[in-house]
């Protein structure tokens, strides 16, 4: 069964890549595209305020006492997001206590995928016992501001004075299909370096996942 699931996800990966490139190419071309579409590495992030699955409103400014945050744009319906769910939970379990908690944001249009309705988000957060906020980006304004294009897509932010600055953008790690086959732990390595007072080595990777469907398209 595990092999069958892995093959299924691999097929989806191939179809996703054939459908079009992710939001940024590697290296300089990636940095250029990202800068055109949203925040790039080094940019200060504007405050945002979104509804959590527990009904409360959550703002980036609520994390002013943190060293930083791990923002992950994700969704309920996407196979890639599902494959990364336990890894996102593990990131929060590892780094929240070090001052870098996870903030998960769902920008997916529920009109396209019913699994992404707010009610389904609440069900999923409760079933998996998320230890972090799972926010709904109804207007998709936060996703647009960040330049998010895929789910999942990660942004590692570091507290810089009174603001948060982007230090990493892209994949969570290098193996969407199989957590046991990961060789590059991009988000983990970025946060580990920042928590240790070191610069991030890999600052930009190409996100692989389900394309965000924009409501005005």
Automatic annotation (TrEMBL):
Signal peptide boundaries: 1-24
GO MF annotation: an example: oxidoreductase activity
UniProt xrefs under CDD domains: PRX_like1
Keywords attached to this entry: Signal
Matches recorded under InterPro entries: AhpC/TSA (IPR000866), PRX-like1 (IPR047262), Thioredoxin-like_sf (IPR036249), Thioredoxin_domain (IPR013766)
Thioredoxin domain mapped to chain residues: 39-192
The protein, known as: Alkyl hydroperoxide reductase/ Thiol specific antioxidant/ Mal allergen
């Amino acid at each position: 069964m595990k092999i069958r699931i892995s093959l299924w996800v691999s097929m989806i990966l191939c179809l996703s890549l054939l459908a079009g490139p992710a939001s940024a190419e590697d290296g300089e071309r990636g940095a250029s595209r990202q800068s055109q579409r949203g925040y790039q590495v080094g940019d200060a992030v504007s405050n945002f305020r979104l509804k959590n699955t527990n009904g409360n409103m959550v703002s980036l400014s609520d994390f002013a006492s943190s060293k930083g945050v791990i923002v992950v744009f994700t969704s309920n319906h996407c196979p890639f997001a599902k494959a990364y769910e336990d890894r996102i939970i593990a990131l929060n379990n590892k780094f929240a206590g070090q001052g870098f908690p996870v903030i998960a944001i769902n920008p997916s249009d529920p009109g396209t995928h019913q699994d992404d309705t707010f009610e389904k988000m609440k069900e999923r957060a409760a079933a998996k016992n998320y230890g972090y906020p799972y926010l709904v980006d109804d207007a998709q304004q936060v996703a647009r501001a960040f330049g998010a294009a895929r789910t999942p897509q990660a942004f590692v932010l570091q507290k810089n004075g009174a603001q948060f600055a982007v230090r990493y953008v892209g994949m969570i790690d290098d193996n969407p299909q199989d957590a046991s086959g990961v060789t590059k732990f991009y988000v983990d390595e970025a946060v580990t370096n920042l928590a240790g007072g070191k610069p991030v080595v890999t600052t930009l990777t190409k996100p692989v996942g389900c394309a965000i469907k924009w409501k005005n398209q």
